[in-house]
């Protein structure tokens, strides 16, 4: 929990300062014929367009390798003027992301799956904020296909 809190604190400060780590996504080529077991967190690095059920417009999610935790990701979820720190993991096609609004506490948890045949280009699942109702989401990679 302290690791996540420290990660979210550091990312929030970087993103609020407007540093390029939150603005310039890294692009990765999609592997031809990829299989679910071959997909790692590295395949999720970059910029994503995120749609949430019941909300107009889309969010931008930028994910980067976590500098302190190999195999994990951190980044920012943005829809002007909102800007939230996130930490994410991918294990066996199961996507988990924690969202923080203040850099201290987890505000929402995202649980999803990489869609079969999408080569880590599409993730769908649910987002839950506190004890509130679950909200469906779809994430689409903006990497070159």
In the CATH scheme, the class would be Mainly Beta
State the strand order across the main sheet: 1-2-3-4-5-6-7-8
Approximate shape: globular
**Strand tally, please?**
8
The radius of gyration is 14 Å
SSE string: HEEEEEEEE
Number of domains: 1
CATH architect. name: Beta Barrel
Helix content, binned percent: 10-25%
Largest sheet: 8 strands, antiparallel, barrel
CATH topology: Lipocalin
Q: Name the average pLDDT.
A: 79
- Quote the beta fraction: 35-45%
Count of separate DSSP helical elements:
1
CATH H level, superfamily name: Quinohemoprotein amine dehydrogenase alpha subunit, domain 2
Any low-confidence stretches, pLDDT <50, length ≥5? 1-31
Distance between the termini: 36 Å
The helix/strand class is: mainly beta
Describe this protein's structure.
There is one protein chain. This protein has one domain (2-141): Lipocalin. 10% of the residues lie in helices and 43% in strands. It has one helix at 2-16, and strands at residues 46-52, 59-65, 72-79, 82-91, 94-100, 108-114, 122-129, 134-141. An eight-stranded antiparallel barrel has the order 1-2-3-4-5-6-7-8. The longest helix is centred in the N-terminal third of the chain and has 15 residues, at 2-16. It starts with a helix and ends with a strand. The model is unreliable at 1-31 (pLDDT under 50). This is Lipocalin-like domain-containing protein. Keywords: Signal.
Secondary structure blueprint with pairings:
Elements (H helix, E strand, L loop, with lengths): L1 H15 L29 E7 L6 E7 L6 E8 L2 E10 L2 E7 L7 E7 L7 E8 L4 E8 L4
Antiparallel strand pairs: 1-2, 1-8, 2-3, 3-4, 4-5, 5-6, 6-7, 7-8
